[in-house]
Amino acid sequence: MDGEIDLTGIGETTLIEMYERMDPRYAPKNCARVRQALIALGYLVTDNEQGPGTVEPGPEKLKALTGAAQPFECEARIDWGVILYGSRMTRYVLGRVRTDGVTFEVWADGLIAALGRGETFDCEHIVNVETFRNQIRVEIRRDGATHAVVLQLPGDRDALRLAGILPKTRTADFRSELHGRSQT
User: Fold this and answer.
1) Is 55 within 8 Å of 36 (Cβ atoms)?
2) Own/partner pairs for 121-128, CB < 8 Å, 24+ apart?
3) Identity of the highest mean pLDDT range in 69-78, 82-91, 116-125
4) How far apart are CA 23 and CA 57, in angstroms?
5) Cβ(31)–Cβ(24) under 8 Å?
6) What's the pLDDT tens digit per position in 121-180?
């Protein structure tokens, strides 16, 4: 029933997802409660009277999540980790990477982007982040599956800054895969 959702113990990412899926026309009390919870956590919440609203970190929240006044964003060469005939193929495409500390976005440029080759992940699903020079490898674990993406950023500092924003969680099965990897 509307107004009866217990928000106790619900994480920020789940609250954001809830709000961005709730339609205030059908659940106005629940939308209002989730909205107020997100505002209290430092998010900017945009209402949409015709459907779900949007959420993004406010200035103080963004500074706490990324250490900066703006989201981290830069160009990248992206290796999506394609497996072909049982062998891993390194195929880089040009694109961009962006994170606000809540979501992690990886988008390819050109025709691939026009075909929708881009992904947005909740940062809470990211584990085993590692860097080597200007490369950063990120594992995304969700729905029982693990997917890794390797990014080559313009410089070593860019890779270190991005790694500093993303979660530090290491899993028991972590093993470094970047050291010595070719940068071609």
Assistant:
1) no
2) 122/13, 122/17, 123/13, 123/99, 123/166, 123/167, 124/11, 124/13, 124/167, 126/166, 126/167, 126/169, 127/167, 127/169, 127/170, 127/171, 127/174, 128/169, 128/170, 128/171, 128/174
3) 69-78
4) 21
5) yes
6) 899 999 999 999 999 999 999 888 888 899 999 999 999 999 999 999 999 999 888 875
Instruction: Provide the β-strand partners of residue 107.
Output: 96, 118
How many CB atoms within 10 Å of residue 20? 15
Quote the CA–CA distance of 118 and 47 in Å, as a whole number.
26
* Contacts with 148 (C-beta within 8 Å, 6 or more apart), sequence order: 81, 137, 138, 139, 140, 177
**Signed CA dihedral, 129, 131, 136, 137: sign only:** negative
Amino acid at 25: R
| Planar angle of CA 93, 95, 100, nearest 5 degrees | 140
Q: Look at the block and give the residue holding tokens 């959702």.
A: 5
Token code pair at residue 12 = 């920020």
Number of other CB atoms surrounding residue 64 within 10 Å: 12
C-beta separation of 107 from 94 below 8 A: no
Reported as a single tens digit per residue, the pLDDT across 108-127 is 876 555 555 678 889 999 99
